Amino acid sequence: MGARVVQRMIAALAGLTCLLAVAPAAEADPGPDAVLGGSVAAPGGGGPRTYTNPVSRSFSDTFADPAIVRGEDGWWYAFGTSDPLREGEGTRHYLPVSRSRNLVDWTYVGDAFTERTLPAWADTAAGASLWAPDIRRVDGEYRLYYVVTQTTLTPEPNDNAIGMATAPTPTGPWTDSGAPVVEPRRGAGASGDFKWTFDPSHAVDTDGTEYLVYGSYYGGIFITRLDSTGRKAVGEPTMIAVDNKFEGGYLVRRGGYWYLFASSADCCAGPTTGYSVYAGRSRSITGPYTDREGVSLTTSRAGGTIVIAPNGNRWVGTGHNAVVTDPAGQDWLVYHAIDRADPYLDEPFGINERPMLIDRLDWIGGWPTVRGGAWASEDPQPAPGRTGPVKVAPAPRPGPVDRRRSDEFDGTQLGSGWSWVRAPQGEVTGGALRWPTQDAELNRENNTASVLLREVPEGDWTAETKLRIDLGTDSVRNYQQAGLVAYAGDDLYTKLVHVAIWNTRQTEFGKEMPYEGRIAYGGTIVGPPAEETWLRLVHRVDRRDGEHELRAATSRDGRNWVYGGVWTLPADAGLRVGLISLGGAGATAEFDYFRLHRR
């Protein structure tokens, strides 16, 4: 079995592929017009005044990987990946289609394909499906791009490719072009090892040249030029986002820049799904793309400015986006998410239930963010077509350091107040805690790693450390890591770590919890790491239900912070906070200090 085949299997088991089947600003009081989903009409007509996510509730329970276009008839049309639409239905819809007059009230209008009309080169005997559509209107025709998961182009399994169909209207009839736009791409392994040719997205450059973006974790995201018909990739493709971190690429032109939106982390880990959207920008459509801090999206310590991530409300797994502009000129992010209280379509650990959401996309300082950084909404929001001021979500500000609960590691041993889960590790020397990564884990059933912990005060607090870990770059060092942990038990915790994931180095904010007789784990990504990386866990207590909300932040210089997603832990969880260094022997973590701030 080739190394890349092993990579593909491990990544799939970890939930890294999308298509397998902040202190947020305070939300407004819903008021008397609140409804459970759908919209509230404006007095006297004129379109809805408000809406509530998910907007696909009226016709489906799940509608993943949404793509959207406005038709010549004035309707908006949304296309989703192939899944059953309702719980208990059991029948797969091949690229289901819905439409709306106002972007919030949607009606199902059919499927782009059926079992009988699938592309002739789709290997139906092998269970071929169609995933991740992209819908555009080009030169008077509608073009629909999609993933064909199994093809007849090779005798091997997993030979996924990109197809394209055309139609006179968004509701069809759709006619496949008869051949792939991007053919299966072999990996370096044995039979059946193909790179993930997923998530197509079409774009037209300022000179009229057409391009297609495609790719996923196994292989990376690429951009390729298309021929004049849009039916065939031509020339050499260019990588615009690194493998093992990004998928779901989508391009938007604004203010002289091309913005690449891309999703990262596991799409489909049920209640612990950390899928999120990131952005880089470039003057050229073919890159290179860099984030707000100037970090490239193609390096081992890849950048990516956060557009949306889980914010602590009901929605997790906020990713795989499209962008539309309403008649008032306001941009909207169309994406899917998972209700953490209802994460599966039917049985647990089956199809992840990912309905379609929309939220306002704001541009602040030249960068996109959803709802001014508040991210996904769960309460009524002003409907599309109505303008208003942008409310920027404030970044948390740590309070004074609690010296009794902090440790500068300036002596020859740990300060008072620390305790160990399992055997003590590492040593305090040279003004740092030096802790070799353990050949041990804190992952699902494998709870063998030692954990260094201390008590936390009641209420709000922030934990911070400065970390240096010799992970290098580019080489495979799976999954050596070190960082902060908020711990309520071996199977109930969050951790913020600098980690080696195949050729990449990332700051992963993970959560583990019991769910339906198993242990669920998932993560979301924060800012790019560096030789020295500062890490923060910001703890707040939700005043509504007492839940512990933990938000991650990272910095490459100790001054400029990237605030990422939020994980929640139960109100009755007995939290302690501390440090970990684990995931495989071969690296050494150096913690310069541990500081606990009282808010």
TrEMBL record:
Disordered: annotated span: 372-416
Site (Important for catalytic activity, responsible for pKa modulation of the active site Glu and correct orientation of both the proton donor and substrate): D199
A Pfam family assignment: Glyco_hydro_43
CDD domains: GH43_ABN-like (cd18616)
Xref: Gene3D superfamilies: 2.60.120.200, Glycosyl hydrolase domain, family 43
Entry keyword annotation includes Hydrolase: yes
Domain Beta-xylosidase C-terminal Concanavalin A-like intervals: 406-595
Keyword list, A-Z: Glycosidase, Hydrolase, Signal
TM annotation in the entry: none
Active-site positions on this chain: D65 (proton acceptor), E247 (proton donor)
One Gene Ontology biological process: carbohydrate metabolic process
InterPro entries given in the database record: ConA-like_dom_sf, GH43_C2, Glyco_hydro_43, Glyco_hydro_beta-prop_sf, Glycosyl_Hydrlase_43
Any one GO molecular-function label of the UniProt entry: hydrolase activity, hydrolyzing O-glycosyl compounds
Segment forming the signal sequence: 1-28
Family, similarity comment: Belongs to the glycosyl hydrolase 43 family.
Protein's recorded name: Beta-xylosidase C-terminal Concanavalin A-like domain-containing protein
Organism: Planobispora takensis
